[in-house]
Design a protein that fits this description.
It contains 14 helices and 13 strands. It is an alpha/beta fold. Strand 1 and strand 2 form a beta hairpin. The model has no long low-confidence stretch (mean pLDDT about 95). Bound molecules: pyridoxal-5'-phosphate (PLP) and zinc ion.
Length: about 400
């Protein structure tokens, strides 16, 4: 296997591997071009199974010649069969939850950041940076600290307090920008031109995006080298969604797994749904929106990979739906009550859409459905406020009995 070049997704022009992300000819996005012509599927499978317990077991499919040093290696997060959730949804489909909150900084962003920071080090950068809706900030700050690099993380200043605290603790330069994510991203694109920094999701975006493929690889491996029939995944910029598709496709093409692409269902919040809207309207491009939703991690109004997400959902016979803030809150609770997994608002969006698909009768009996829980509930605690009440009692048996008189039978 070799990593060949950076390739334009649109006009296929090729560029040398470096800190660059758009095509000089047509301004299309660049992605990694691999040559897998000498790959032996059986040998690759053996290397994976003998590999580390994290994303670097898939080093053959990432843009490196060997396994980078990575003290915070993310990945190999649990994939759980959620029978009680299926029951509550009233479906006879097999529902699987991929709990990617179980990563070092509790979101799937550890995967993309591990890849981008390894590449930043290889390219000789000493400062890394990002434009973030929150989780990326956590991951960049932590992985930079682990690698001994300086870091600058840029976020909307009105982010959830838990996400700000869980970023600043790593000793990063935390910059709260008075604006929304799209303002932050615009500023970072300018900074990437004027500062010698590795912006993980700007000038290193082609490498960063590759990290999301590992979620597809793990899913296949954890299902016993089988593909899911359907996946449900959240969409912000659309990178995760499209790269999940790319990961499945690479393994199908290389003969590591048999079958075809799963049906892809994307999930957005109604308050920021440019990709769901483009899908519903039959557009090929996304019309930018001003976000207003509790799902702040998904609040990207002008999504870079939105059109590719729409295309992939269409091609696989899937769809992209949006759920309201109230539906997000209910879905967080539904997942917690039926699986013991507490997700942040992005996971509420995913489970909210899963529930909609169930209600529409889209989840067939026996169908293998994987829903991606991409972040941790403790980071968006406000979303659970007032969704339950606590029993408050005096420290006496009488007080307990009085409170639970109707409920406890002795
Ligand atoms: C928890 C969580 N899930 C999903 C996403 C979506 O990522 P993408 O921008 O790759 O669509 C994000 C992005 O910030 C996120 O924080
Ligand atoms: Zn091009």
């Amino acid at each position: 296997m070799s990593v060949e070049s950076l390739k334009c997704k649109e006009c296929k022009a090729e560029y040398e591997l470096g800190a660059t992300y758009f095509c000089e000819r047509c301004f299309g996005p660049l992605e990694i071009g691999y040559d897998h012509s000498d790959l032996d599927a059986a040998a690759a499978k053996r290397r994976i199974q003998a590999g580390s317990r994290g994303i670097w077991r898939y080093a053959d499919f990432l843009p490196f010649t060997g396994r980078p040093a990575d003290p915070l290696e993310p990945g190999l997060t649990p994939l759980l069969k959620a029978d009680r959730l299926a029951e509550r949804l009233g479906v006879a489909a097999e529902i699987w939850i991929k709990n990617d909150a179980a990563n070092p900084t509790h979101s799937f962003k550890d995967r993309v950041v591990a890849v981008a920071i390894a590449k930043a080090q290889e390219l000789g950068f000493t400062t890394v940076a990002c434009a973030s809706t929150g989780n990326l900030a956590n991951a960049v700050a932590a992985h930079a600290a682990a690698a001994g690099l300086d870091s600058y993380v840029f976020v909307p200043a009105n982010l959830e307090e838990q996400k700000l605290l869980a970023t600043g603790v790593y000793g990063t330069n935390l910059v709260g920008v008075r604006g929304n994510y799209d303002d932050v991203n615009r500023l970072c694109t300018q900074l990437a031109e004027t500062h010698p920094w590795a912006f993980v999701n700007v000038n290193l975006r082609p490498y960063y995006a590759e990290g999301s493929k590992t979620l597809a690889f793990e899913t296949v491996e954890q299902l016993g080298w089988k593909l899911p029939d359907r996946v449900v995944s959240p969409i912000a910029s659309g990178s995760l969604f499209t790269k999940l598709g790319r990961g499945f496709q690479e393994w199908i093409d290389l003969g590591l797994v048999e079958g075809g692409q799963p049906t892809f269902n994307g999930a957005q919040a109604t308050g920021c749904s440019p990709v769901a809207t483009a899908f519903a309207e039959g557009w090929d491009v996304c019309k930018p929106q001003k976000p207003d939703t509790i799902a702040k991690s998904l609040a990207i109004g002008d999504p870079a990979d939105g059109p590719y997400a729409v295309e992939h959902a269409r091609k696989t016979g899937g769809g992209i739906d949006a759920v309201t803030d109230q539906e997000i809150r209910e879905a967080i609770k539904l997942l917690a009550e039926t699986t013991g997994i507490f997700t942040e608002t992005a996971g509420g969006v995913t489970i909210g859409v899963l529930r909609k698909l169930a209600e529409r009768g889209k989840l067939a009996a026996g169908e293998r459905v994987v829903a991606y829980i991409t972040g941790e509930g403790l980071k968006t605690l406000d979303a659970t406020r007032d969704t339950f009440s606590m029993h408050e009692i005096d420290p006496s048996l009488d007080s307990f009995d009085a409170e639970f008189a109707q409920e406890v039978s002795v």
